[in-house]
Amino acid sequence: MRPAILLFARSPEREASAKRMRFAAPLFRALVASWLDAARRFEAKPVIACAAEDREALASIAPEIEREWIEQRGTTFGERVASVTNEAFARGFDAVLLAAIDAPPHDLGEAFAKLAAGTPVISPSRDGGINFIGLVQPEAELLAQLELRRRDLREQFASFSVVRGSIDLDDESAIAIARTDRAWRGLLPALRPAKHHSRVVAQSRTPLPLASRPPPA
Questions:
Q1: Are 151 and 90 a contacting pair, CB within 8 Å?
Q2: List of E strands, 125-205
Q3: 72-75: long-range pairs with CB below 8 Å, 24+
Q4: Smallest Cα–Cα separation from 40: which of 65, 69, 12?
């Protein structure tokens, strides 16, 4: 089997901005690095599907790991997902594990074992979305139906084998759940410096009480 891990991605900065968590850009960067490392460990080719404007930022993450690139094309989210998956299979991969950069790699040994046996897999997110989808054929019609932020996607993949899911990071409230999930272990420390910086900045902008202000000259 010649597998690929296909990351459907934006730059960490744009991902953090889109989810109104600018402080989390280092975490999204760590997530990209963890997926690239997982591809190396499981002998899968990392392929990054992104817009042209995001390529430079994504190329700077773990530059020692060789990867391929696919440009996202299509009007809707589903069309873009279907397009990049079709292109990955056209490049000769036998199995494609499609993931975003808002959840960490987990249980990939089980997923790739099922793919090697010809069984497609899905890892549902704990909030109703999807962590990753493993395919043994393009499934363009199915993927084209995907809609961003939908939370009832499992019914569309009823014939797929289910792999344990984690929480994906769609907003700041998901961080508390991630702290209880072993799949996120080792990644969340990337948040600490940014969160501390945010508190320091906020405190520095708080006016001093009148009694603490220096006397006029």
A1: no
A2: 130-135, 161-162
A3: 72/8
A4: 65
Beta strands in 79-175 (DSSP E): 95-99, 121-124, 130-135, 161-162
Q: CB of 108 within 8 A of CB of 39? A: no
What is the domain count for the chain? 1
Phi/psi of residue 60, nearest 5 degrees: -80, -10
**In this structure, is residue 216 part of a structural domain?**
no
- The single-letter code of the amino acid at 208 is L
Q: Domain holding 20: CATH number?
A: 3.90.550.10
Least Cα distance to 167 among 175, 157, 155, 156 occurs for 175
Helices 192-204 & 25-41 angle (0-180, nearest 10): 170
What is the distance between the alpha carbons of residues 98 and 204, in angstroms, rounded to a whole number? 43
Which residue shows structure tokens 């850009």? 25
**Domain of 131, in residue numbers:** 3-202
pLDDT in tens, 86-123: 999 999 999 999 999 999 999 999 999 999 999 999 99
Question: Residue 28: which of 16, 40, 39, 46 has the closest Cα?
Answer: 16
Query: Percent helix, strand and coil across the chain, each rounded to 5?
Result: 45, 15, 40
125, burial (CB in 10 Å: exposed 0-12, middle 13-18, buried 19+): buried
Q: Is there a domain that residue 211 lies in?
A: no
Please tell me the predicted confidence (pLDDT) of residue 188: 87
**Predicted TM-score of the model (pTM):** 0.84
